[in-house]
Design a protein that fits this description.
two-stranded antiparallel ribbon, 200 residues, 16% strand
């Protein structure tokens, strides 16, 4: 992971579900812990953003991760709590990064679960091109350890890890089709239109 201490580092942790009581899933907790590991090895100006608008018991993934991060590590993280799906994590994450970098070049490190890390990074690449000056941001990423939490299924078809993995593969095929150059910007905006950030 190349580092330039003269530019800010923006670490974006992607929410991966909450348990029925609103506490972090094992996967979201692993993301938050991995965010801290990235924060610890980086130097210079660092910002942490937790992204995730999925809500249980009036708390979003982003808020629950930020709370855990503060309680465990004594550090504050920004909360991006609008997004519910991966492409919106990317769009809102890049817009947040633009505010934090204040027009400067910056390094973005996306932290996510291995099951959909590739899809997340693909979406972030498209979001950088669609919503910012692509020369402003250097994109990197970190996969968490393989963790699975059966309590966080959000869809009835996710009955076990195998069905969840199959779902992720189908979604990845869709993203690869829509976010392929040269139409990746249009593809991202199409995804945003059919699956907007806020889920009512």
């Amino acid at each position: 992971m190349p580092q330039d201490n003269n530019i800010p580092v923006i670490i974006i942790g992607i929410g991966n579900g909450l348990r029925p009581d609103g506490s972090l899933s094992a996967v979201s907790r692993e993301v938050a812990d991995s965010v801290f590991e990235v924060y610890r090895i980086m130097e210079g100006e660092r910002h942490v953003v937790f992204s995730g608008g999925y809500k249980v018991n009036s708390i979003t993934e982003a808020e629950a991760m930020s709370k855990y991060f503060n309680e465990r590590y004594g550090l504050l993280g920004h909360t991006e709590k609008k997004s519910y799906r991966t492409h919106n994590n990317a769009i809102e994450g890049i817009l947040y990064a633009k505010k934090l970098s204040d027009g400067r070049k910056a390094k973005i490190v996306v932290v996510d679960h291995p099951e959909h890390f590739d899809r997340t990074k693909l979406a972030f690449k498209a979001a950088i091109e669609a919503y910012s000056d692509k020369d402003k941001f250097y994109l990197d990423g970190v996969k968490t350890k393989e963790v699975y939490d059966p309590e966080v299924f959000r869809q009835p078809q996710w009955t076990d890890k195998k069905s969840f993995s199959a779902y992720e593969k189908r979604r990845m095929r869709l993203y690869k089709t829509l976010l392929r150059k040269p139409w990746n910007k249009l593809g991202l905006k199409f995804l945003k239109r059919i699956w907007p950030s806020h889920r009512q």
